[in-house]
Amino acid sequence: MSLPSKWITHIENWQRSGLKQADFCQKQGINYNTFSARLCDYRKQQDQSRPALIPVQVHGLSEASDKAIVLKHSNGHQLDLPSTISAAWLAELLTCLG
């Protein structure tokens, strides 16, 4: 089920507002429980639209390299890890984040 654009607009306006959900709903005359339910639907919809795999770029690292491994998210967050990190630990991290 696709969320109506009216609710997407409300949710995006709330996110930009910096207000608590209850305060935003009161100012907009929106039922808080309905807003919360639509927000839950919105988040589920967002989760389903995310790719299961993400593109990875390897930039000339060798086994003996002392450079860090850098994981970058499309929203600008970045995680720097030492190149000595175990592949098993990194795989577990990515599974948890996935």
Q: What value does the Rg take, in angstroms?
A: 20 Å
State the oligomer.
single chain
The structural class is: mainly alpha
Number of alpha- plus pi-helical segments: 4
Shape: elongated
Please give the domain count. Answer: 2
The tally of strands reads 2
Overall pLDDT, averaged? Answer: 81
**Ends apart, CA distance between termini:** 23 Å
Share of helix among residues? 40-55%
Strand order of the largest sheet: 1-2
H-E string: HHHEEH
Q: Low-confidence spans: pLDDT under 50, at least 5 residues?
A: none
In percent, how much strand structure appears in the residues? 5-15%
Largest sheet, in brief, is: 2 strands, antiparallel
Salient structural properties:
about 50% helix, elongated, mainly alpha, 2 domains
Task: Give structural notes.
The protein has helices at 5-17, 21-28, 32-49, 87-97; strands at 69-72, 78-81. It is built from four helices and two strands. It is mainly α. The radius of gyration is 20 Å and the shape is elongated. The relative contact order is 0.09. 51% of the residues lie in helices and 8% in strands. It has two domains: 5-49; 53-98, no CATH class.
Describe, in short, the structure shown.
The chain has 98 residues and is mainly alpha-helical.
Secondary structure: elements and pairs:
Elements (H helix, E strand, L loop, with lengths): L4 H13 L3 H8 L3 H18 L19 E4 L5 E4 L5 H11 L1
Helix pairs in contact: 1-3
